[in-house]
Amino acid sequence: MRLALLTDLHANREALDACLTHARAQKADQYAFTGDFVGYGADPAWVLDTVMEHVARGAVAVQGNHDYSVTHETRPQMHFEAREVIEWTRGQLSGEQMAFLSGLPLTQEFERMLFVHASAHDPVKWEYVTGLEPAERSLRAARKRMVFSGHVHTPALYRRADDGRMGSHVPVPGTRIAIAPQHQYLVIPGAVGQPRDGNSAACYALYDDVARELVYYRIPYDNGAAARRVIAAGLPIVFAMRLIEGI
C-alpha cells in the first residue's frame, strides 16, 4: 500500500488540490487525513467535500482541534483571529458537513498504524509534539509501530528504537527514508494548508508499507490565489500573509 499522508488542510483549496494531484502521480492507492480540515482558509466546504469523497472510498480521517472547535463551543485558548474564522466557518458548512466533522474520531487504527491529529498520549488536549519528550509520550501511548499526526505545521520524524532510545530526523523533501521494522516511528508530514517553517510550499508525505519507505514532499502551489481568497472572504489578513510567507 502506498499511503498518502495529509494533515492541516485548513480550508486551502489550492494547496490540497496540488498535493492530491501530486499524490496520484506518485501512484498513491490510499489516503489518510489527520485533521484540521477547516480554519484559517477560505474554502472549508470544498475541502470538506473532497475529504468526505475520499473517506467514502476508504480513506482514514481523524478530527483536529479546529474541526472540534467548529462543532463545539470555541475553546478560550484559541486566539481571537482563529476564533473569528471558526465563527465564519460555521456559516459556510451544510448540516451534512457539520455532522461529518462532529462524527470524526480522535484516533483511528489500521493494522500496525495509528492516526491522530496531535499527541496519542491525550488526543483531546491537542498537545504540540515539538521535541523528543512529547514524541516519546505519544509513541508510548500509541503502542503502534507507525504513528501519523500533524498539528505542528512543520515536517518532522521521530524514532523510538527497540531499546527505548529516542531520536529525531530532519526530513529532506524527495528523499527516501528506510523504515526499520523493529523501531517505532512518529511521522508528522507538515501542513498542506498552512506551512510554518519559512517555506510556503505545501507539505505531505507518502508511506509505502511494502517497500518500508517514507518520503516527504514539498509541493509549490498558487498560494497567491489562496491568499486572495482569504482576503476576499473578509477573514483576518494575517492568515493570507502566512500563506505567502510560510510562517
Automatic annotation (TrEMBL):
Pfam families listed in its UniProt record: Metallophos_2
GO cellular component, one term: cytoplasm
Domain Calcineurin-like phosphoesterase: start-end pairs: 1-207
MF annotations from Gene Ontology: phosphatase activity
Entry similarity comment: Belongs to the metallophosphoesterase superfamily. YfcE family.
Protein name per UniProt: Metallophosphatase family protein
Source species: Massilia violaceinigra
Organism classification: Bacteria, Pseudomonadati, Pseudomonadota, Betaproteobacteria, Burkholderiales
